[in-house]
Amino acid sequence: MTQSEAPKAETPANISGVVAQAAAKIKANIERVLVGKGDVIDLTLAAVLSGGHILVEDVPGIGKTTLARCLAESLQCSFKRIQCTPDLMPSDITGVHFYNQKTGEFEFRPGPILAQVVLADEINRATPRTQSAMLEAMAEGQ
Question: Of 19, 62, 68, 126, whose CB is crowded by the most CB atoms within 10 A?
């Protein structure tokens, strides 16, 4: 194998260039739907690429749900939306084990928190116990 045929080693500069190109493509894809929100998209991508979580607070009708949905579609990730209400139980978001009478076994039905991109709307309306379940899942990276 000659030197020109040898595979190129990925250097930090090469990797960061590839990541920057991918982020630019994702941003362009989201901007096709969300017009004029480039700064919000940049911050969202920075949080996602750094492995963090995002809290978006704004008035209704600004595009928060659309941003989350477009991000998930651009990344080819599963997306779930949780509407927080005072009667929402922790098991409603984490999932439940139920008895399947046909098989005679317990089965797990996963909740929406197990999706790759989760939008929790109006978190302040959920009970502290439900909020704690969400925070635990976020902290554990589940």
Answer: 126
